[in-house]
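ok trying again, last paste got cut off:
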Amino acid sequence: MKRVLVTGADGFTGWHLLPKLRSAGYEVWAGVRSSARLPLPGAPRTAELDLSRPETLRAALAAAQPDAIIHLAAISQVGQAPAHRFYEVNTLGTQRLLDAVVHSGLRPNMLLASSGAVYGAPKRSGVIAESAPLSPGSHYAASKAAMEMAAHAYMAELPCWLLRPFNYTGPGQSARFLVPKLVEHFREGAAEIRLGNTHVEREFSDVSWVCDAYIALLQLPGRGSAVNICTGQGHSIQGLIERLVEMTGHRPQIVRDPHLVREGEPVRVVGDNSCLRQWFDAPAPDMGDTLQRMLSQGDV
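nice, full thing came through this time. structure:
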């Protein structure tokens, strides 16, 4: 049985990942801040882990002695924090973690969660491969790109995967994100929903499938390379709305909010998953199944 330490374990992704890791036979340690949601699913052992406090990183590593680390801890949404906090947590926090791992003498397989947002908005619609230039368009995306650059300084000593998940969703995701916002409005029978462009097409993978991809890569030594975590399939916002109408029988008025419109954004942006399919080729759940789970469960 291998030991896995998951940072940010009490977040949306960690909540789905922890029980999957246990079912896969791993001994799971959850690195959480003192304000974490407890108890956590999957009954992991817990260790205090605060990316701003190196002493907690050293103590967590000493306690867990992990064979692998899945690093999820981050500020994850544009507008969620002042600009400097994205770099303090996502970039410098990751650097502190990597530094603590190197000085611990441990050599765990490292999975570092970056983001498909590092590519920015391409000038035209298309499929984005890992070879595409990085052009982050927000402090969140820039902090993740900088995190990747910082990680390269440690790759001579640590096996690392740089994971670039595109949009994904599922039960328990905050309604600050688009798909759970839609689901919440339909569940509550809202008269209207204020949105930006509804005819753009984007990736929206299922969080359960994303977790399965992480576990598949966890079994392979990191190669210092970036991997898109995506299905290569796009879904239009209007298409999601129509599916929810079919499922609920409710049709709210869609109000185009100019503050939510991104002028000049490409119509279709999806990820190229050719690289991922070398190691993980499980079919993604149908989006309708994901939406139904979200409508039915609401939270996890």
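cool. The chain has two domains: 3-168+205-229, 169-202+233-268+285-297. The longest strand covers residues 27-32.
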